[in-house]
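We modelled the chain as a single entity of 113 amino acids. Its sequence is:
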Amino acid sequence: MGHHNAQSSYLATRVSTWEVARHYAGPSNKRSVTHEYSVVVEKKEIIVCKVTFCSIRGTSKKRIENVIAKVGSTGGAPVDQRGTARSANKTPDDVEQLVKDNILSLSTCSSHY
């Protein structure tokens, strides 16, 4: 499907979440929300089960669960932040420039090759 952020955003729009209306198993039931998964076929929105939704989208259940959890906590589609941190062992640009200037300041000599 492409870019990770675009995929997360799309998956977030295809899953609806709301509070459970009644707790039939009593207050000890841990399920507090209901999720509804939908796909669009010929401009019609069709409600499907989670297994079918994962199969159609080619994603794992865990990926869907992560998107739902992040949407629930932030209110928006999750943003992928992989690779955004600066490398811990990268030489700073100013030090790199000093080394280049030092190398260029050295005199050159012709080689016999």
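As a brief sanity check on the tokenised model: Residues 4-74 form one domain. The mean pLDDT is 84.
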